[in-house]
# Entry
Amino acid sequence: MADKVYPPVTFEEFQPTSYEVWKEEAVTSLKGGDFQKKLFTKTYEGITLQPIYTKADMEYIQETSTFPGREDYLRGAAAAGYIADRWDMAQSVEGATPTQANADILHELKKGATAVNLTIGRKGVVLE
# Structure
């Protein structure tokens, strides 16, 4: 079977639309469902993810042309970003005693963890 040749895609056939028009269509598609509850997602960190973003959403961001690793560290502390570093696999360890925490950490490291979030006792411990 010969490979099909597809024409180049152009977006001229699509008309630009406003957020209000998009929202109206989304509400219609929900068929009575609550727009806020269905399309906005709250993360564990308390950040609400919107279903669509516009240029107006960028207005509150003070500086978007900075480089990673430069002052105010808006884009991270590493100049190369995080591309060069592997991700850490962190495991939370809550040891009742330092001896128990040590045993738990060694176990987690043996199972593949590369970082540990350590809590000893109710208030945690400061490691210096």
